[in-house]
Specification:
The protein is built from 18 helices and 21 strands. It is extended.
Amino acid sequence: MERAFPSVMGGYCLTPEQVLLQLKYRYDVEVDRSQRSALRKIMERDDTPAKTMVLCVCGVVSAGPAPAGPVQPESRASPGSGAKAGGQPGGVIWVTDGWYAIKVLLDAPLTAMLLQGRLAVGGKVVTHGAELVGSQDACSPLEAPESLMLKISANSTRPARWDAKLGFHRDPRPFRLPLSSLYCNGGLVGCVDIVVLRSYPTQWMEKQPGGVFVFRSERSEEREARRHGDRRHKAMELLFSRVQAQFEREQEAKTKAGSRRRRLTRQEMEALQDGEELHEAVETDPAHLESCLNEQQLAALSSYRESLGQERQARLQERFRQALAEAQEGEGGCPDRDVTPVWKLSVCDSGDQQSGSVYLLSVWRPPAELRPLLREGCRYRVYQLATSWGKKQAGRAAVQLTGTKKTQFQHIQAPPESLCELFQPRVSWSFRALRGAGFRPLCGEVDVVGYVVSITDRHGPSPVLYLADGHQDFVSVRIGASLAQLALEEVVKPRALLALSNLQPGHRTPVPVPVPALYAGELALFSTNPKEPHLQEACAHLRSIAQGNERFFQMAEEKLASFIPSNNQSALLSPRDVGPAPKMVNGQTPQQSVRSSGLLTPVSRRPPLPASTPEDRDPKSVKRKRGLDFLSRIPSPPPLSPLLANASPSLRKTFNPPRRSETPRPPLPPPPAPPPRRAPPPQEAEWVNDEELAMINTQALLDGLGGQEEAGVSR
């Protein structure tokens, strides 16, 4: 009181008489009445520190590192700065419940508040979900070790009134917090009041061995699970065949070693009654010796062989399990997939009707009973949530909420008038409405229904779909991944009726465009048979319009070709429809010649877009066509000027071989006259055409030269 109001209460509380009275009062309460304060119960491990309690800051031990800037709610730092902040120690302060004191470890936002003076000595705070760290043993407050501290988080701590009673609060439950006051790195959130705006389909996150996380939709996850099952089955079959072959070789070696025993006589065979002895005896000649056995011996032998087969099968299975475990641990094996389902929802604060901020809530491993509980347009009170940095996306807040093992959802009835200001039910948007000035969808997402008129870059990493509705309006949908990755090859086809949900509108321009652009992200849903009532109704209406007009698709293709601007012509047509580039004229590139002359094909004269054929779906044929198209667009090089060889006169002289002295020999008879050769045709030029050179049979020339040399030697 004296520190809070020094001008009024100064000299009234900290007097010797008041101190003695306080000591007497504490003795009566703790000794005579056996009552303990909140911090004493917590340090003696008789109560949990997670309850809501009011504490007073009575000292500062360490202020922690200096922050890079002021910390605000919903602050979002870069990944690098967040990693650095996570490794730095936080601030440490002393707090008291009016009886005893304990050190408190602060997180990053609270440390920044301490440095900014927002968390000062003498102020009171109310906190929930605190943790006792440093020592696991119960101890008295006066004998507490230096490492014993309370750990509190900014998302569960708020300033308290100056006259709030210290100690445990009368309501131990977590207090409600507005979503706009949460921090990305502020720890757990005790309680929030939300309204579910949108519910998205379940995704599956796979953690691959290299540390890469891959998110898949339901359709792509089913395909990946089948592929992994097939690979695993083939690997297990191959491994089992190797183990079985090795096991059979070992059994054959044991059988050969046992076959060297001596043969028994007929009297000795009749005396055998044990199945194992009979089996060892008949191993040398089973067909002959089994005919000498009686019924009892045959029954004992059959029983032993059956037990021996079961034992061998058990040993084979055990060896196969060991080999399978070793193969899974090794690099060449087929390990199990680490897949976790995640359910995402868009929510908003039920009490914030002005800002319009939307938050993303992720529920990992959602139980089966939770999905029918959380419905769009309903209000819930959620306890024990975690916060993190979310993806930078338009229309969404920086804080991302995540469910934990302790998260609980409580349904609350909300008045309809308050929900009308926060929630808008899903509708199937018309393509014409996407160009309107008042187009502001909830959560920045729309649901549309349309026929596929054209597919650009079908086998590429980011294909674009052009859809048409019943009014011959169009919209382009760019997909964030390839159709193969999303397992949509059999769904997205030309002239297919598609229902698309959770599409994000593109950047709005001041001038309306004839073909609005949409983006299909990881939360988008493609379906030819939707389950949602609004999409079913829209599909039925559009299907009836298309069936009543035989030229619906032809008209749509012609109209779409007239809407696409000239610079998007190559993107709209398939690779086989793009003509070769013009040749270089006067040193100009094809692009420069087109720009300078201004000769462009009128958009209205463009032929309708061809539909995809089965050949176009083959990736090899598409790649080959793209390569040929690229080569056709390369301009021909200019003709080369002839090279003038400036040779010196000495190089043009005839080569004379060196002479040597020889012993004179008798003259040889003159050789027969060679057969007359054909006169060479008159040379019109010094060069021979390449076609004539290619037609010369060099092998015949070599054979002729070889025959002449042999004739000369024989002579």
